[in-house]
Please model this.
Amino acid sequence: MMCRADQHPEPQDADAEKVADAAAFAALLEDGAEDLYENAPCGYLSTLMDGTIAKINTTLLHWLGLERDEVVGRMRFTDLLTVGGKLYHETHFAPLLSMQSEISGIALDLKQTGGGRIPVLVSSAVKHGTTGQPLMIRTTVFDARDRRAYEEELLRRREAAEEARRRAEADRTRLQEALAVLQQSLLPDTLPEVPGVRTAAHYHTASPDRLGGDFYDVFAIDGKRFGFFLGDVCGKGPQAAALTSLTRYTLRAAALHDPDPVSALTTLNRVLHERYTGSGDPRYCTAVYGTLEPDPGTGTLAVHLASGGHPPAVVLRADGTADFLPTPGGLLVGILPTARFTTATTVLGPGDTLLLYTDGLTEARTGQDRTGLYGDEALLAFLTAHAGRPPHSVIEALTGLLDSFGDGLDDDTALLAIGVPTADDPRTRNER
Amino acid sequence: MSPLNITTRDAGTGPVLEISGELDYANVSALQKRLDGLTLRQGQRLVLDMRGLEFCDSSGITALLAARGRAEAVQAEIALAAVPANTLRVLRIVGLDQIFTIHPDSETATRP
Model:
């Protein structure tokens, strides 16, 4: 170091240094060929064409835990391999080698005397004589323990990831099944038979992951009256589902206590307001609630309903007309301690149908760029074209309409149709 | 779909939130957050200027009701300004036109 720090080294000194370096380098090389063979960081092995081991280096003997005397002239290459390795050697390695004269990077397992095994990568080449006849096989053996461990780790991780994915998939399926069951519990399985009345309903779920907040029901109140309702709670998911459940059972219970539409909605308003006020999470719903009273004498159905913040129902008449049944000014249910609800009444004759819907229908986005809304006018035109048809047929047509919106329909939508059958309805004849 | 954009300014009467774009389930939390961070004092008037509002669904309605609840809690007023026709139609259906003071524009809404 002192010498190199010198700014002006004598030229003779530098030359002498070079000579000394070269000598040391040569000495290393001279010493190296044999030493390199014996102690190389890989195994060397030469065999006769029948596999008998003629030469083997120290490194490989060390890996095997064998002495040179036990091996040279006494063992064949395949004796060093595990059973599986032997088999692979016979069926693949040896045939390929004799065909191609060389083969490289074949993974095999060596047996150790202690009973262990070492994964290795083996390359072999046939040495030929001057006339081209095969003389011997030269083989190098690389320790592949690290590499094998790495591969095994990769495989293990891939299996773990696969397992995690499979489990997540199963969890997701289970969750969706649970959600579907919950969703079903929020809606009636079947609508009850109302004498002299036909009903039909449809529920469109926008997303299987987000419990919807639309609801409807039809149920008996007393011997002659039936109650019905349809609505939409704010929000999505479990909280909305809890609100839907509370709403549905409150309306049913309220109807039994006092079937008057305004008093049923007023009860619901009080319940929701008390439940959610001060929770920091305002929860409310829109709802149409009403009663049906069939008149067996005239074959008509008297409908009394009240609306709290819900879009107006539509009445489809047998004569081919359709009109909104306006209920303006009814307030959302649950936002204020007292709320005003708007009532409306109508009488349905044979062939007339009352349609209730949630705003998923009218708020569906239309047009190429999904910027338009389907809207009230289009709905009324569509329903006018279907006026005079029985409830199930109207619902069927609307279901087709909902499907036609495609991804423009991003909200849940509930539909409920209540109608009086015409005299030529086969079921009507059976009833009379 | 246009994103929701909210800018806040102070008028003599209190804070004015200019809401533009689409107020729906996907982005309503942005308005909620802005309302939570708002300083609103007793006697002030919170004005929601909806001139640029292109769409408002039921989640948007919930946010309006939450804003109303916040104003009530500190005894402040709340008013809506420049409500677009389609949103006004929704407000009418749900009866909220009766419980919100609605002004034609933010100028009228911020008059003392």
In short: Residues 186-431 of chain A form a domain with the Phosphatase 2c; domain 1 fold (CATH 3.60.40.10). Chain A has two domains: 40-143, 186-431. Residues 1-6 of chain A have pLDDT under 50 and may be disordered.
